[in-house]
Amino acid sequence: MRAAVLQGGTVETRVIGDPVPERGQLLVRSLACGICASDIHFMDHLEAGMDDESGMSTYDRDAEIVMGHEYCAEVVDYGPGTERRIPVGTRVSSLPVLATATGRRIIGQNPESPGGFGEYFLLDESLTRVAVSELPSEIVCIADAISVGWSAASRAQVTAKEVPLVIGCGAIALSAIAQLRRLGVGPIMAVDFVASRRETALAMGADVVIDPAEISPYQAWRDVAYGPPEPMKEMLTAAGLPGCVVFECVGIPGVLDSIIRGCERGTRIFSVGGPPEGEHLHTLTAKRKGLNIQFGGGPLMHHWDEAFEAVCSGSLDVTPMLGRTVGLDGVADALAASRDANGPVRIVVVP
């Protein structure tokens, strides 16, 4: 098959062997696969997971790895021991995890579990879901990105006495905004330096967008949550201060620490950015403020299913996130273009 192969820190499109489904696996043909910021983090920081003993990701510059974990695919064949409950030719997707004879692997981050930047790859039959949808595969494949922010927003259980602040307006942030809107939470505040990203945040459900070059996000949050000082004094005294829930969706060192230093006392922080090179945190400040920090963890399975159904049914419109599409020969350039914050939220590979 043809595939865009990561090796030695660079991506080259060439012919490699077709993957062969093992027990419980499906062979599928890639129809569309989104380029995620975590693909770039993975290829740029292969050393970041050297202390990860799970084996779910392979951090080896010499290995041949086909990335791509946000996919819509078509069932082609079955491995041994499968139920064959999904007919050949059916459009599907799944949580990007593959069960193998040697353990669980992240799809698109191991030689054993190639991803959607190739013509064919493997899925775990037990995790595979049918795409019940008339929408194009380029839209359906965005569901996995939606599931991450969707799960974070759902787990946060933001109350009517809290005002959410979303830092960053990439795909994960936008999905958190969309789910917060669906949950009836508000006002939703979103922060990004890039004007086009702020516009997309509004399209996905944000009420207020903030350019941090013009005003501190935390001052802007206070202005919205507390209102003008004088009129609010009596209300705040009687009802107590509104709480802040921050969603950190940037993944650049220094951002989470800046939230710790800038946010209100008692803030709840959901960090889903995760810079691969690590982060230095002022933990004493966090302690003094009584902050509660929840780190990522990926989407829960039922949240992935909810997000997939919402995208497939069209009840959640993700078209504001969709940029251009490229073929396999354009993957290397598209990965480079995805580093530009002024570019589209999602470039989609159509093998």
TrEMBL record:
The keyword Glycoprotein does not apply. The keyword Transmembrane does not apply. It comes from the Bacteria. Pfam families: ADH_N (PF08240), ADH_zinc_N (PF00107). GO terms for molecular function: oxidoreductase activity. Signal peptide: none annotated. Keywords: Oxidoreductase. InterPro entries: ADH-like_C, ADH-like_N, GroES-like_sf, NAD(P)-bd_dom_sf. Residues 23-126 form the Alcohol dehydrogenase-like N-terminal domain. Residues 172-293 form the Alcohol dehydrogenase-like C-terminal domain. This is Alcohol dehydrogenase. It comes from Parafrankia colletiae. The lineage of its organism: Bacteria, Bacillati, Actinomycetota, Actinomycetes, Frankiales.
